[in-house]
Amino acid sequence: MELYRSPYEAYPFLSDAPDDLRCDFELMTDGLASLTGLLRSRVEDAGLREELLWLCELIYHMNPALRTPLRVTEAEKERLHAAVERLRGETRGRCHRFVLCQGCEAACVAHVLRVRAKETVRLLYRHLHQGRPVEPLLLDLVNLLSDYFFHLALRLNAEAGVDEVDFISRSY
To answer: How confident is the model at residue 96 (pLDDT cuts 50, 70, 90)?
Structure first.
C-alpha cells in the first residue's frame, strides 16, 4: 500500500515512519513554545514576560536538534539553570512534597508546560533507546524547563494570593 501524501501537508515530516521520533519531538517543542507564548500573555510582570519570550525562542532553537546539530549553548543552559534557582529561592516553603495543579490561570498553564516538558524528555529517552543520538545538553535543557515551569507555577500562585494544595498520595 502506497502512503498518501496530502498536497496540503502542514509540515513536511508529518508522514515520517512511526518509529522516527524526530517529527514528534519537533511537534512537542512547537507546542511548548506555543504554550509559553500563551503563558506570557497571562503574565503582567515585565521581567517575567521578557524571560518567557527568551524561553520561547530557546525552545524553537531546540526544535530541530534531532535532525540538525544543536544550536543552543552551554551558556544558555546556565542562564536557564540560574532562572530555575532564582524561582526555587523565591518559592521556598510554598510546597513540601506534591501539590495539586490548581490556582490562578497562569499557574495552571505553567503546570501544563511542566508536564509537556516531561513528556518531551520521555520522548528523548525513547529516541535514545532506539539507538539514536541525543545531545546531553538537550536532555538537560528540557529537564530544566520542567523545573522552571513548576517553580514558576508556585510563584504565579503566590503573586495571585493562591495557596498551594498539598496532594497526599494513597500509594506512596
So the answer is: confident
The rounded radius of gyration (Å) of the Cα atoms in the chain is: 18
Domains of the chain: 20-65+100-172 (1.20.1200.10)
Q: Distance between CA 155 and CA 123 in Å, rounded?
A: 28
- What is the distance between the alpha carbons of residues 101 and 118, in angstroms, rounded to a whole number? 15
Q: What are phi and psi of 165, to 5 degrees?
A: -110, 115
pLDDT in tens, 97-129: 789 999 999 999 999 999 999 999 999 999 999
Structural element, H or E, at residue 56: helix 46-62
Beta bridge partners of 99: 166
pLDDT in tens, 4-35: 999 999 999 999 999 999 999 999 999 999 99
- Residue partners of 86: CB distance under 8 A and separation at least 6: none
* Cα 112 to Cα 142: distance, rounded to the nearest angstrom: 14
